[in-house]
Amino acid sequence: MMKAILPPAMLGILGGGQLGRMFVTAAKRMGYRVTVLDPDAQAPAAEFADVHLCAAYNDADALHTLAASCAAITTEFENVNADAMRSLAKTTRVSPSGDCVAIAQDRIAEKAWVNKAGLPTAPYLVIESVEDIQVELAAYLPGILKTARLGYDGKGQVRVNSADEARAAYANLGGQACVLEKMLDLKLEVSAIVTRVSPEQVSVFPVAENIHKNGILDESIVPARIAPALAAQAQQMACQLAEALNYVGVLAVEFFVLGDDSLVINEIAPRPHNSGHYTIDACVTDQYQQQVRAMCGLLPGRTELLSPVVMVNLLGDVWQPNGGEPNWDVLMEAPNAHLHLYGKKQARTGRKMGHYTVLASEVDAALEQARALKETL
Ligand code: ADP
Ligand code: MG
Prior knowledge:
By secondary structure, this protein is α+β, with helices and mostly antiparallel strands. It has 11 helices and 18 strands. The protein has helices at residues 18-29, 60-69, 82-88, 98-104, 107-116, 163-172, 228-244, 278-282, 287-295, 329-333, 363-375, and strands spanning 10-14, 33-37, 51-53, 72-75, 93-94, 124-127, 143-147, 157-160, 178-182, 186-198, 201-204, 208-213, 216-222, 249-258, 263-269, 309-315, 337-341, 352-359. The strands form 3 sheets. Strands 10, 11, 12, 13, 14, 15, 16, 17 and 18 form a 9-stranded antiparallel β-sheet that branches. It has a 5-stranded parallel β-sheet with strand order 3-2-1-4-5, with helices on both faces. Strand 14 and strand 15 (263-269) form a beta hairpin. The radius of gyration is 20 Å and the shape is globular. The N and C termini lie far apart (49 Å). The relative contact order is 0.12. Bound molecules: adenosine-5'-diphosphate and magnesium ion.
């Protein structure tokens, strides 16, 4: 075990979006200093960071400065250049590893690793050229054609019902590498977020139940409304995957719950996750503190849920067409709700602008109140 990095050491993060902003907040509260690398002058994390390196993610000078000035480096941005992470790791502590980030960036590698870890995925076919679709596709139809790289929030995905549609969709996506995944009948979607510092030091958050709207996370409900044994199984599977990847850092694992109550792994993210925002307000330790702890070689913090909680995402859609603020007054008056805004200037449709949580003694009451509050915005 390497020596722990203690405050006021400088920590570095690749990416300065909302996940970076919440990381910076956690790290600063603990007494660390933070350098953010993000090409956007208005990156949400920049306003709280000690240093903002406003440069491209592959900018050699900026990467050199980051490596030279930081005791440890992490990422909030999964499409960060994995080679940049590998080269930073030659001189500085980097977590998660460039190798793990590369796996999470590529649905083909990701699914292969999940299966290799002995864990189930939806039936899928790797499509790297047109020949790969000239086969019997019945096992994958109706299905979803997903680009192997750079998809998020339902982007880069096309639903297909026939082999002809699959071929047309593949051409429409520009012939890039894809997976054709069988459309499953989902009872629910859940996620489990693991923190792994070493083989002995692994901890996992309570399982969140996730409701998506238009391919984007809308609500996370915790505890998930599933049998405790099933939640425990999701947590165990997430830990098993982190172990197989020899992962260091925070790893989010998204699951499908099927009609027969079996679990399938959908995808992973090598970082804190939107479905773990609830941990800030409702857990002993939050996912951003865990990211700090893991990169610094500290033990993971305890993850117990202090209260049932519902998190609601606030997309740009809630802002007025002229960009005017939503009507915050009712939400701000609710003594058991917490508003988190990411400081983004431009509210666009589908853009994640913030979230709020509602804590209550019963999860159903939290959900009911969270939905009622949304109506007041
Ligand atoms: P993204 O990277 O955009 O989050 P996902 O692969 O998680 O992509 O897909 C987004 C959403 O689409 C999922 O949360 C789920 O609701 C739905 N979805 C994806 N794959 C399947 C599938 N094989 N069967 C049924 N629904 C799916
Ligand atoms: Mg997803």
